[in-house]
Every structure is written in C-alpha cells, then in structure tokens.
Specification:
By secondary structure, this protein is an all-alpha fold. 76% of the residues lie in helices and 0% in strands. It is built from six helices and no strands. It is globular and about 35 Å long.
Length: 97
C-alpha cells in the first residue's frame, strides 16, 4: 500500500466506514462526504471492475457505464497488478448472494 495513503486521517475514515450498518447509512455518509461526481466515479469504477471480471469487452463496458477507455484501463491495471481490493469485495458480494 502506498505510504502516502496510510495516515491517521485515512485510518479514521476507514474506521468510520466500518461502523456503517446498512446501505441507507452508507448513502447518508457518502452523500455527506463525497460530491455527487465523486460518488458516481467510485461506483462507476466498481461497476467497471465487475464487468471486467465478467469478461466484458472495453467497448461494451464503455457503452454500458459511460466510463472512458482510460478509466477502464486503469481499473483493469488495478485488477491485475493492484492490492486485490476489487476482487476481495467482488468475491464477498458473490458469496453473500
């Protein structure tokens, strides 16, 4: 993990996120802490990751999500060379269902 990311402030933020109990609480918190554009960007990236893991093409993903090919490529790079955060969350969602 990047050394600039691991800070007391980030720890406090993640601890706060971990206290959220349901989707409604998530909406309340994230609508306060993020702009609409920031929240849309985060959810778009997660949707792109889901679609990439579902073996969808860049063209299909761009068409369905509105994400640029640069964003899709960035998410793909994180999936292949990142810290496995996307895959961890995606697998947990699948196991939850």
């Amino acid at each position: 993990m990047g050394r600039d990311l691991k800070t007391e402030a980030a720890d406090r933020l993640f601890d706060a996120v971990l206290t959220l109990k349901n989707r409604e609480e998530c909406y309340q918190f994230f609508e306060d802490i993020c702009t609409v554009n920031e929240l849309q960007a985060l959810s778009q990236r997660f949707e792109v990751a889901h679609m990439l893991r579902d073996s969808r093409t860049y063209m299909d993903i761009a068409e369905k999500t509105g994400a640029s090919t640069a964003t899709i490529s960035r998410v793909n790079r994180a999936l292949n060379y990142g810290h496995d955060g996307y895959d961890m969350a995606l697998k947990r969602l699948i196991n939850k269902d």
